[in-house]
Amino acid sequence: MTQASLGQSVVQKEIQSQNNGVAANVTHTQPLWLLAEVTYRCPLHCAFCYNPTDYDKHTQNELTTEQWIQALRDARRLGALQLGISGGEPLLRDDIEDIVIEAKKLGYYSNLITSGVGLTEKRIQAFKDGGLDHIQLSMHDITEEINNFITNTKTFELKKKVAAMIKNHGYPMVLNVVIHRYNIGHMREILEMAEALGADYIELANTQYYGWSLVNRSQLMPTKEQIDEAERITNEFREKQGSKMKVFFVVPDYFSDRPKKCMNGWGEVFMIVTANGDVLPCHSARVLPNIEFPNVKDKGLDWVWNDSPAFNKYRGDRWMKEPCRSCSEKENDLAGCRCQAFMLTGDAEGADPVCSLSPNHHVITKAIEDSRNPVIASQPIIFRNDKNSKAIIAGELNDRVKEFHALP
Amino acid sequence: MSIQQTDLYAIALHHRFQWEEAQNCYVILFPEGMVKLNGGAGEVLNMVDGKRTVTDIMTELKAKFPDALDLEQDIIGMLELAIEKAWLRQIN
User: Fold this and answer.
1) ipTM score here?
2) Checking phi first, is residue A111 left (phi over 0); if not, alpha (psi -120 to 50) or beta?
């Protein structure tokens, strides 16, 4: 036992994932994080939601409580430790209390990821008693106007009440703010609001363009100058207030030269079980062609993680094409995001077009240009709701999705 | 920051320290993150319970690992790191 062996091994293993701003470990593959997207139903209609635009197909065939509990047990046996209970809005299900109790029993560190809508004194007390470890609350802006606009709901006052409730119950306050054109100018105020609410962690998540946010990309994307300014303000705030509140700033990949190491690698640490039981290595994997994702109704998670063709498809680097295959930086980003590569270029094995070395990098440059084009950027936002999801499934909004190689 | 022999530490609020069979190591879990601890690091934090002083921890680990070199320094180093990372809180 030496100093080096103690210290280094700890530090080296703490790796910052760029995907959700979470810190995660890289290891020989074991699913450390299980994300349970328990429902796609949601009372909010956020323009930047990453859920699939055809989610309406998956609102009538949700897993039962028993099926969720089985999934939790199976994933825990595989090594999963961090459990995110997400959606949609998980609180629309009335069995979250049962899921929380089981999670505690199994030894998960559990996190409820919520808009706050539906969180009552009674439910939060039940979560506390059941052993839920923390609650991550989404906030949208310091102004009622922007909060209500971007979520297409009147939820501003409610969110503040829920924040106080979380604090009063002795939970760490973990805020998530998705950043876009409409709130990026309020970065300082958002950070001050978080401080005033007593936040322990705040994640400033620049919008990544999947699902609804891809459809609304030109309407949501801020400029490079705005992002630089937001990052400067964030760093200034960090320096000023020290380590009391941890601030994660998730860098937007469209404005980077290199792609993100998506999910810390395909099938490396993350496993997602969706509302209807599909098991995915990342949030939007269902857009990819020629992959059949297993479902917990048919297959055990052990097989899914270790043996399924889907989870093995993009492990390692044998699938990579040039310029990634011989790139000296390939270990840094593993060629980026498969979904982004396919959605934007039609080639799921190609380099993520965010990379300046990608032969398709022009699609990113074009997307940035479009977002600054007043005619394109003034098209209406398509809010995430059942009506729009049905319309997208029916092909009625084709002009907004036709440039993508699959339905976002 | 300097660690005193009589200091008492506990795992920080909202953090959980536990043994993981599947990983064969101790881990620290906290909102938005987790860290796997290698053998030595895990052994040190496993002693941190809000009741053992730094001296107690050293004594017990010396008994457990009689052949380890520079053990005291390693323990202090690990505690310093854990405090810096806010995994521990001082309770006296």
Assistant:
1) 0.88
2) beta
